[in-house]
Amino acid sequence: MKSPLILLLLLLTSSAIMAQVDKDKLALDVAKAEEANLQKLKSYIWNRKSDVSVDGQVKLTTVTQFSFDAQGKAQAKLVDAESSVEQKRGLRGRAQKNAIEDKAEYVQKALGLAVAYTFMSKGELIDFFSKATVKESNGVIEATGENVYVQGDKLTVRIDAASKLFLNKKFSSLLGKDAVDGEINYEKFSSGINHVSTTVLNMPAQKMKINAVNQDYSQRVN
After folding, report:
1. Is 144 within 8 Å of 131 (Cβ atoms)?
2. Which value, in Å, is the radius of gyration of the alpha carbons in the chain?
3. Backbone angles phi and psi of 27, in degrees to 5
4. What range does the domain containing 167 cover?
5. Which of 70, 43, 68, 38 is nearest to 222 (CA)?
6. Cα separations in angstroms, 58 against 3, 47, 55, 84, 160
7. Is the pTM above the cut of 0.85?
8. What is the largest CA-CA distance in the chain?
9. E-strand stretches of the chain
10. Along the 222 residues of the chain, how does pLDDT read in single tens digits?
11. What crossing angle do the helices spanning 4-41 and 122-131 adopt, rounded to 10°?
12. Which of 88, 105, 110, 207 has its CA 20 to 30 A from that of 28?
């Protein structure tokens, strides 16, 4: 007859194995739902309007057009960048223009980082969930994992338990040596297709905040 201690250890071991199996299944279910949703989203193009604030004041607004290429990879093209800073003349004006262009490039890189956390591949999702802590409450699954793309980064996702589609993502990461905190929010079209609605990025080293809104979604005409 086995002792109560041995039985307890066996029970705990069994529970741990079951939890691991559940987490693996969750990863596959989320990856499957994400892929099915993405296949529908690939027929759309849209614009992302980004207001860039420095020290609390909007200094730059960029517009980026999104679409998917033949391989199904998200493509971003900067179509407009407008500064609210009054343009100076002469050498100071050219220096100012160069500074604005550099800022616009930095903003695109920061938003590109957010895109990486937005469109995660099946392998990346499975790897994330394998390292994540997972809990469920009131129909919402929450998973938090670290070292997703770079050492020390952190990602928390909230998922609708029924559809397995994303509701929200929050991440802390690095752009070069600069710390970046981001939040990605999702909404659904009336057709049920899930899509990113807003992205907010904070970069304390640059005293910068980016508020990005995805808009003007339209289906491509083949």
Report:
1. no
2. 21
3. -60, -45
4. 4-219
5. 43
6. 68, 19, 8, 7, 34
7. no
8. 92
9. 44-54, 57-68, 74-83, 133-137, 140-146, 154-160, 166-175, 178-188, 194-203, 208-219
10. 555 555 455 444 444 433 344 799 999 999 999 999 999 999 999 999 999 998 899 989 999 999 988 888 888 888 887 775 555 554 454 554 555 566 778 888 999 999 999 999 999 999 999 999 999 999 999 999 999 999 999 999 999 999 999 999 999 999 999 999 999 999 999 999 999 999 999 999 989 999 999 999 998 776
11. 150
12. 110
> What is the CATH number for 207?
2.50.20
Residue 220 near residue 130 (C-beta atoms within 8 A): no
- How many structural domains does the chain have? 1
Query: And the tokens for 34?
Result: 């994400």
Half-sphere exposure of 60 (CA within 13 A, CB side): 22
β pairing state of 166-175 and 154-160: antiparallel
Please give the Cα distance from 98 to 63 (Å, whole number): 18
Give the pair of three-digit tokens for residue 59.
Answer: 């200094």
How many C-beta neighbours within 10 Å does residue 84 have?
11
Nearest-10 Cα torsion for 34, 108, 219, 192: 30
> In one letter, which amino acid is 152?
G
